[in-house]
Amino acid sequence: MENGLLKGSQGSENGTNLDGADHDALNLQPDGHLDLSGSPPELTATSIERSPTLLEAIVEESVAIQYILALGLSGYVDGPSTPKISTLGRYNRLQHHEKAWRTITWRQHNEYTIDRCSTTYELYGGVYAHGLKSQDSYVTTARPITRGMKLIEFPSLLRNQFTGRTWTILDLGVDTQGS
Model's pTM, two decimal places? Predict the structure, then answer.
């Protein structure tokens, strides 16, 4: 390792090493250094797959490098670091997440009971809002009037929330009518 770059093995004059890899595509410099700086993660990951075994061994030994490459291949960026989750923990979560999307499997299953039918509802950002029918006796319309809301925040392993929260707002201050 010199100047922060991995020293590559000497290849033939046409840019192909003895292992058959096209090192011009790998940014192999004339002095024999493999330069991956400035490469997009997808290209870097592809380049590493075709590079010498020494570089592969370095990647296999480093969870941090594996995590960065997996982020690039999946199109994600690393979020803010927290002391609660190690790099290995983040890497494992990313692998579980990718597997779940490939196989369309869920890690948990929850059921929620909705008290009454309502024409007013919304699901956004993992929170389900369900309209509560007005209990006022003076309201007489063909469609139910919503005066309050019941909210359910669904649990999320990605947000470190393992139990869902529920809360009720009995009076929104205005009547709304569903469609």
Answer: 0.43
